[in-house]
Predict the structure.
Amino acid sequence: MAGIRHISIPNLHNLRDLGGYEAAGGCMTAWNRLYRCDCPSEVTQDGWQKFRDLNIKTLVDLRSTFEASESPVKAPGDFEYTDCHFFYEEEGADLTGEAGKKFLQSLSMDYRVMTENSSDRVALILKTILESLSKGNTVFFCTAGKDRTGIIAALILKLCGASDEDIIADYCITEVYNAAVIQAKLDSIPKEIMEQVSPETLSRATYSKPEVMKEYLEWLDGYDLLTIMDEKGFTYEMQEDLKNILITER
């Protein structure tokens, strides 16, 4: 049964269902099981009810410890909140001086470097999502739902056998829903810091261009992701379990 890709909730811009993509064996990724979004720290009680209506039980937060403390997610007690930061512990610490530069650099980091340098964290995130799905529907997020969230979404879709074209499309649409969030973050950085950042860095920080994900997926083809994840604790058996949960017949 077809689902709804983008779900509208006040103060949340980028909540999307990862179902409905063609997967391995002529199947498809299941609707209404796994979601991606930007940070739900400003979600109202009505918004949380919408989460309940989607049968979401667990929230997996990929943000740094500092980000989470600065913009805490005040989810009602019937939701399980899991802190599972990717690796950006310094991100957003103080958007002045060197901290502002580091924030912009973090937004424009190469996804290949991010994955290699945090392969143990990536494995833990995937394992956490698998465990969460055994309890009910799950959503994972970072600040804007673009980079860290984009990487994890791409890896999961790749594991399920989605085509590169669909993975790239899923990544690119973030630019549309995410524009206001990223712009607000950029606007908060002092002008003197922004003037020191190249147009290329700002472009990569702001937009979700297809060539960025295309390069990443081409690199993944030679990375032997499944073996590395197995070695890091997200075992082959767990990988199959995740696919079995997320793949369904058409």
